[in-house]
Amino acid sequence: MNMDPLPALEESLRQSQQIIYTILDAIPVRVFWKDRDLKYLGCNRPFAQDAGFNEPKELIGRDDYGMGWREQAEIYRADDLSVIASGKAKMMIEEPQKTPDGRIIWLLTSKVPLRDATGGISGVLGTYMDITEYRNAKESIRESEEKYRAFFATSKDCVFITSKDGRFVDFNDETPAFFGYRDREEFWAVNIGDLYSNASERQEHIRAIEQSGFVKEYPVDLRKKDGSIIHVLVTSIARKDISGKVIGFQGTIKNITEQRRAEEALRESEERFRGITERISDLIFIVDPEGYLTFVSPSVISILGFPPESYIGKRAGPDITHAEDIVNIEKAVERLKNGSLEEQIEFQMPKSDGSYAVFDGTGTPVFTHGMYAGVQVVARDITERKRAEVALTQSEERYRTLSEASPDQIFIIGRDDIMKYANTAALKLFRLPFDQVIGRPRKYLFPPEIAKSQDASLQKAFETGERVRSEERIKFGEQEFWIDINQVPLKDKAGHVTSVLGIARDITDRKRAEEALKESNERYLSYIKEAAMRLKTPVEVVEHNITTLIKDINAGDIDNNQVLLLLQIQVKNMEQIRQNILDLNKTIVDRYGEMSPASKQFLTE
Fold first, then answer.
1. Distance, CA of 254 to CA of 400 (rounded, Å)
2. What is the mean pLDDT of residues 275-293?
3. Long-range CB contacts for residues 110-117, cutoff 8 Å, separation at least 24
4. How far apart are CA 24 and CA 262, in angstroms?
5. Domain 406-506: which topology?
6. In terms of DSSP bridges, do strands 371-381 and 283-287 run parallel, antiparallel, or are they unpaired?
7. Identical fold at 155-255 and 406-506?
8. Which CATH architecture has domain 155-255?
9. Buried residues in 270-286 as b, exposed as e (16+ CB within 10 A)
10. For residue 239, what are the β-bridge partners?
């Protein structure tokens, strides 16, 4: 029988090692050991996996330079050598480590000397725990505490901690002034229950906290030291002990008294605004920052035939205006967003009958707490005005066409004596292009003597508002001619004369004809006088003979035969007179050939 105890000891040792490795692999702590040259002799499985290996045996013989944390290798080795050299352990060291995937984690490391059977130091044994989450949580708590302390110290609201019975445990520096007290010392004596304007509200407030564990912006009316009431919002949570029993409360109190007043003023303002918008004939839009309509005044019904609510939520440009206006509207809104204080724009909107109404709109930016909040547009229906303008333009175009086609010189002179308009005929008179006539003073366009003669008639037209007409003989350059000038005052809606329309017609030919006719009449009268003188003697003879004959007949000194003979003689004399008149008329016709056929017949027959 073999009584050798070695195999049994080896088996026992193997089992013991197996148990140790099983324990090492199961614990959450990483374990490793190195020799004096800082080569790894072994480790547990979690450590191997942290190093990026599957099995602990893969690390044996390696050093820290071959690990994922090679950047921290010098730090680790310095600690290892210090422990080996001093024989003293280093416990609970916080240090960073870079993982194989590149993350930085934090470790809580302990290292002790590794000794052999003789007690000599043969290496180092180390353990560490990953405390990254612990450090992060600790940092979060620290940051939270710092934020709370900063909030507690700097908040303009009241920040408080109280016991359940209403005694203040702590409060920030703003709290005494918040309630109108002089300082902290004076305020310490105050019980929070005394601050409620209605004692029952405190009990309701506490019940609300106890039911849900907290309340947010709970509305309460509190009383200041001087007795005045302030409207506040209380946000608070219950403070509990380890057993979960409520021992007090903590939170903030926000004064909304001014906000309430502002809200009331806003409500009243909105009521006034609504009253105005319901009565105003103009159209009012409000557009949000994204370009959607949030308000349209009731006047839209009478103007366009659609109810206001049918526009809410629609885009201000593409959904409600004519396609040709969209780009201009979007550009105007963009300018208002970028700082423009007012934009004027004309646009069209469809009516319920299928036609379009034209609007002249003024857009202004809307701000809330200093931030751009949209656009307000006040638009006036100018459809009829646009139609009138089109009709006026067409009318002006027709009159301009007539004016340009007229042979008369037509011009308009303003009160400032500046030439406002001149037609083609007038430009020919000035022998200047349009741009050198319009806008120039009248006195620089006409010769001095003509300009001076125009002064009185223009002044009369401006002062009396009545038409002034005159005929003048003028010399313009080398030309000399007669003109008929008609000056017509032009008035504004108020009846004030703003300018004078002048129409100058060349009447030179007419004047020449009148002068020729005058000369002709004078010559005709001269010949008539001459004829009268020539006829005077034979007529006087006939008249004398007839007078003598009548006397002889009455005296009985002449018989009938003599009477007949004398009458024959007088008839011949009268025939001679008639022939003389015809000869004279023929002479007149020969000299004044420009005579109507009727006149010629009258004078020659």
1. 73
2. 82
3. 111/79, 111/80, 111/83, 112/83, 113/83, 113/84, 113/87, 113/88, 113/89, 114/33, 114/34
4. 70
5. Beta-Lactamase (3.30.450)
6. antiparallel
7. yes
8. 2-Layer Sandwich (3.30)
9. eeeeeeebeeeebbbbb
10. 248
Q: Which of 198, 160, 161, 204 is nearest to 179 (CA)?
A: 160
Q: So what CATH class is 281-386?
A: alpha beta
Of 42, 24, 25, 22, nearest in space to 34 by CA? 42
Structure token digits, residue 447: 């010769």
Share of the chain above pLDDT 70, in %: 84
Report the Cα 186 to chain-centroid distance in Å: 55
Rounded Cα distance, 547 and 52, in Å: 173
Please write the tens of the pLDDT for every residue from 58-91. 999 999 998 888 888 998 999 999 999 999 999 9
Rg of the Cα atoms in the chain: 62
- Contact between 34 and 42 under an 8 Å Cβ cutoff? The reply is no
Question: Would you state the structure tokens that stand for residue 98, as one six-digit string?
Answer: 């870079």
Tell me how crowded residue 189 is: count the other CB atoms within 10 A of its CB: 10
Please give the biggest Cα pair distance in the chain.
Answer: 234
- In sequence order, the 6+-apart residues with CB closer than 8 A to the CB of 453 are 472, 474
3-state helix, strand, coil in the chain (%, to 5): 50, 30, 25
Q: What are phi and psi of 280, to 5 degrees?
A: -75, 145
Q: How many other CB atoms are there within 10 angstroms of residue 415's CB atom?
A: 12
Contacts for 437 with CB less than 8 Å, ≥ 6 apart = 419, 422, 426, 427, 430, 445
Structural contact between residues 155 and 70, judged by C-beta atoms closer than 8 angstroms: no
List CB contacts of 542: < 8 A, sequence separation 6 or more.
Answer: 570, 573, 574, 577
Between the alpha carbon of residue 109 and those of residues 94, 95, 239, 516, the distances in Å are 6, 7, 38, 137
Q: How far does CA 411 lie from the centroid of its chain?
A: 41
Residue 536 is predicted with a pLDDT of: 60
pTM (two decimals): 0.36
Residue 57, amino acid: K
What's the CATH superfamily of 15-136?
A: PAS domain (3.30.450.20)
| Mean predicted confidence (pLDDT) in 416-441 | 86
Which amino acid would we find at residue 154? T
Measured in degrees and rounded to the nearest 5, phi and psi for residue 188 equal -60, -30
The alpha carbon torsion through 294, 297, 303, 305 (nearest 10 deg) reads 60
Which amino acid, one-letter code, is at 462?
F
- Kindly report, residue by residue over 145-183, the tens digit of the pLDDT: 777 677 677 778 899 999 988 899 889 888 999 999 999
Decide if 367 contacts 376 (C-beta within 8 A). Answer: no
**Strand, helix or coil at 169?**
strand
Q: Which amino acid is at 208?
A: A
Domain boundaries in the chain?
A: 15-136, 155-255, 281-386, 406-506, 514-604
